[in-house]
Structures are given as C-alpha cells and as structure tokens.
UniProtKB/TrEMBL annotation:
<dbReference type="GO" id="GO:0016485">
    <property type="term" value="P:protein processing"/>
</dbReference>
<dbReference type="GO" id="GO:0016020">
    <property type="term" value="C:membrane"/>
</dbReference>
<keyword id="KW-0812">Transmembrane</keyword>
<keyword id="KW-1133">Transmembrane helix</keyword>
<dbReference type="Pfam" id="PF06105">
    <property type="entry name" value="Aph-1"/>
</dbReference>
<feature type="transmembrane region" description="Helical">
    <location>
        <begin position="203"/>
        <end position="225"/>
    </location>
</feature>
<keyword id="KW-0914">Notch signaling pathway</keyword>
<dbReference type="InterPro" id="IPR009294">
    <property type="entry name" value="Aph-1"/>
</dbReference>
<feature type="transmembrane region" description="Helical">
    <location>
        <begin position="6"/>
        <end position="25"/>
    </location>
</feature>
<feature type="transmembrane region" description="Helical">
    <location>
        <begin position="177"/>
        <end position="197"/>
    </location>
</feature>
<dbReference type="GO" id="GO:0007219">
    <property type="term" value="P:Notch signaling pathway"/>
</dbReference>
<feature type="transmembrane region" description="Helical">
    <location>
        <begin position="146"/>
        <end position="170"/>
    </location>
</feature>
<feature type="transmembrane region" description="Helical">
    <location>
        <begin position="107"/>
        <end position="126"/>
    </location>
</feature>
<comment type="similarity">
    <text>Belongs to the APH-1 family.</text>
</comment>
<feature type="transmembrane region" description="Helical">
    <location>
        <begin position="63"/>
        <end position="81"/>
    </location>
</feature>
<feature type="transmembrane region" description="Helical">
    <location>
        <begin position="32"/>
        <end position="57"/>
    </location>
</feature>
<keyword id="KW-0472">Membrane</keyword>
Length: 239
C-alpha cells in the first residue's frame, strides 16, 4: 500500500506539470534552459530565506515568520528573473527561431513560472514521498491518514499557481500594472499562510481556499494573455 500511495501521490502532484513540460517545453532547448534558470532562481531564493530564518534567532521557532519572509523573497527573485529575461531578449533573439521574441513574452513567463513551480513542488513534497514508501504507514496510529494525499494536492496547486503568477507578474511589470503585481504578492502570501491551518488538520479549509485562488488566478492569467470566452470555447471543442 505504501508503494501504491507513493506513485499515486507522485502522479497527482507532478503528472500535470510533467504533461505541460512534455507538450510545451521539451521540444525547445531555449525553453528548457529558461526553465532550469528559473528553477535555479527559486533555489537561490530558498537559500536567502533560510539565511534570514537562521539569522533572526528570536523568531526562529515561528513558522509564520519564515513563511512570510520566504514569500517576499520568492517574489523578489521572480522580479529578478523578469529583469534578466528582458535584458537577454536580444541574445535570445539570435539563438532562437522565433522571428520576434517580443511577441512570445507570455510563453517565456509561462516557462519561468513552471520552473518556479516544479522546483517548489519538488522541495515541498520530496521528503513526504520518501517517508510514504515505508516501512511505516502514515496515519495508521497517529496523525491523519490523508496527509500525504493532501500534501500532493497542495503541491500541484502551488505548481500551477506559480505558473499563473509568473504570467500575470511579468505582464504587469511590462505594463506597470501595480494592481496585478499586488494581487500576485498578496495571493501568494494568502495561499502560503492558509496552509498553516494544516497543523490543526483543517485540510478541507486550506485546500479549498487554495484551489479557489488558483482558479481565480488561472482566469486572470488567461485574460492577460488575450484569452476570451470565444477562444475558450474553441479550446474546449478542439476547433
């Protein structure tokens, strides 16, 4: 049962992102490089967050403090990734087949967001998945027996959110739309903070709220890239 749970939760968390990577990124070396670079930026943000947490000794045992700092540092590095992409557009133009790379900015922001999300999901779930293999069974005598499934679902939500957030954030930086920038930062802070309820086993509350925010963010990102009801109908009907 432990091995079945391991594979089930792994595919739940990383199945959709893997499909997104395979269908939209794997065929383009430039996109792969950008995705790896975005993942590296997230790792550096994690290093900075850990440094802040370790340095502020009086608040080291306060999870909320580390969480809030991590959110703001991640968003700062998202902005740095945005600036890096915009600075290297001319170089990317010379090594890619895209005629006008400025017309594909939403694709690049999507790739960056997916890179942020995949590495974030991997770090948040890898230890839990390792424990799920056994020999013990989580929730058999103590704790919740759905903890691993909830963690996988939450990781999937965060991966998708990071993807949508980057699309919105990069476009907002281009247009100087501070409302969208504020939405990205505050929604990231909200979703991260509401996971603290999992410590009280209020999984339904935290997961429902997270997915509501994810759906709202998806709609905003869809509108940002020029989507509308007509294009959505064509997508659903495969026309």
């Amino acid at each position: 049962m432990t091995v079945v749970e391991f594979f089930g939760c792994s595919f739940l968390a990383f199945g959709p992102p893997l499909a997104m990577f395979s269908l939209t990124i794997a065929h383009d070396p430039i996109r792969i490089i950008i995705l790896i670079a975005a993942s590296f930026f997230w790792l550096v943000s994690l290093l900075f967050s850990s440094t802040v947490w370790f340095t502020v000794y009086p608040l080291r045992d306060k999870i909320a403090f580390g969480l809030v700092c991590s959110v703001f540092i991640q968003e700062a590095f998202r902005y740095l990734m945005y600036k890096l992409l915009r600075k290297t557009e001319r170089g990317l133009q010379e090594v890619t087949d895209i005629v006008h790379i400025s017309d594909y900015k939403h694709i690049l922001s999507y790739v960056c967001g997916l890179g942020f999300g995949i590495i974030s999901g991997a770090f948040s779930l890898v230890n839990i998945l390792a424990d799920s293999v056994g020999p013990a069974t989580v929730g058999l005598k103590a704790g919740s027996n759905i903890f691993i499934v909830i963690s996988a679902a939450q990781s999937l939500c965060m991966i998708l959110l990071h993807t949508f957030w980057s699309v919105i954030f990069f476009n907002a930086c281009d247009l100087k739309n501070y409302y969208h920038i504020g939405y990205v930062v505050l929604s990231h802070l909200f979703v991260s903070c509401i996971t603290l309820l999992n410590g009280q086993e209020l999984f339904a509350v935290s997961l429902t709220a997270s997915y509501i925010v994810m759906l709202a963010t998806c709609v905003i990102a869809f509108r940002v890239v020029g989507g509308n009801l007509a294009s959505f109908k064509r997508f659903v009907t495969c026309k």
